[in-house]
Automatic annotation (TrEMBL):
EC numbers, comma separated: 3.6.5.4
EC category: hydrolase
Name of the protein this chain belongs to: Signal recognition particle protein
Cellular component terms per the entry's GO annotation: signal recognition particle
GO biological process annotation, one example: SRP-dependent cotranslational protein targeting to membrane
Record's comment describing the protein's domains: Composed of three domains: the N-terminal N domain, which is responsible for interactions with the ribosome, the central G domain, which binds GTP, and the C-terminal M domain, which binds the RNA and the signal sequence of the RNC.
This protein's encoding gene: ffh
Organism expressing this protein natively: Clostridium aceticum
Length: 296
């Protein structure tokens, strides 16, 4: 499970601190060195780690903490607060259009879990009483269209397709019209993925964006790729502009570097996390719960 290694290391560090009772500045510095190493081993972005440790240290070394009756506890509380802050403080919700339909565009590289996540998100919104429509706009990956039809069928959400011979922009336009005519209040479009980021991909996504004017552009990235996921997020945000991130495969990521870095690097929140291959395995991302999971 995510943060396995990090949780174990941090909990050990703080156990030592708590057992000491009274703490000196050196105790805090030593502990912070361990925290820094643990975060780097979890593949957290270097600059993020540096800033984080600096912030915690500044707060922890104050007289208020060191002279309190339970300095160890106070430091754990500070780390908890700063970890929560790092991941975005509060849960970041989807923006719904004041006048439906709400248009959500899912973007990402091949294999990140975009198509699966389209189905998961449609299922989640359906459970909340929405009437979603899925649009099959990934015409490049063989079987992506069929796959979207299958996941759509499983969550009982209609899927609009035009095959793979029509341009993604035309598919998006026609799909949106179809949704409006059929009373769908949320329209989720699966877009073209590629193996790597390139000009062509970005241009195409920009064209789709300007055609359908989405309320949310969500980038799907694979948590297990760590800092690569963060770099992908930075590039998509710079070139296309994203509103949030969906971090998939958190169930297989024992380190958690992407979860801890992406918000800080891109200033865009993680809105959902994928926790398995099944269609119900998508959950809103709660920074405070994640922080508590790390600290035990
Ligand atoms: P796409 O190319 O981005 O559309 O990727 P897919 O939706 O086809 O997903 C690629 C693989 O990742 C599939 O085998 C999915 O079942 C798997 N996958 C997607 N999300 C998750 C997740 O949250 N956890 C796990 N374990 N697997 C996932």
């Amino acid at each position: 499970m995510v943060f396995e290694g990090l949780a174990e290391k941090l909990q050990n560090t703080f156990k030592k601190l708590k057992s000491k009772g009274k703490l000196t500045e050196k105790d805090v510095s030593d502990a912070m060195r361990e925290v820094k190493l643990a975060l780097l081993e979890a593949d957290v972005n270097f600059k993020v780690v540096k800033d984080f440790v600096q912030k915690v240290k500044e707060r922890a070394i104050g007289a208020e903490v060191l002279e309190s009756l339970t300095p160890g506890q106070q430091i754990i509380k500070i780390v908890n607060e700063e970890l929560t802050e790092l991941m975005g403080q509060t849960q970041s919700k989807l923006t719904f259009a004041s006048k439906p339909p709400t248009v959500i565009m899912l973007v990402g590289l091949q294999g990140a879990g975009k198509t699966t996540t389209c189905g998961k998100l449609a299922g989640l919104l359906k459970k909340q009483g929405k009437r979603p429509l899925l649009i099959a706009g990934d015409i490049y990956r063989p079987a992506a269209i069929k796959q979207l039809q299958v996941v759509g069928g499983q969550v009982e959400v209609p899927v609009f397709t035009m095959g793979d011979k029509v341009s993604p922009v035309d598919i998006a336009k026609a799909g949106l019209e179809h949704g409006v005519n059929h009373g769908n209040d949320v329209i989720i479009i699966d877009t073209a993925g590629r193996l790597h980021i390139n000009e062509e991909l970005m241009e195409e996504l920009q064209n789709v964006k300007s055609t359908i004017k989405p309320h949310e552009i969500l980038l799907v990235v694979d948590s297990m790729t760590g800092q690569d996921a963060v770099n992908v997020a930075e590039e998509f945000n710079g070139k296309l502009g994203i509103d949030g991130v969906i971090l998939t495969k958190l169930d297989g990521d024992t380190r958690g570097g992407a979860a801890l870095s992406v918000r800080s690097v891109t200033h865009k929140p993680i809105k959902f996390v994928g926790l398995g291959e099944k269609l119900e395995d998508l959950e809103p991302f709660y920074p405070d719960r994640m922080a508590s999971r790390i600290l035990g």
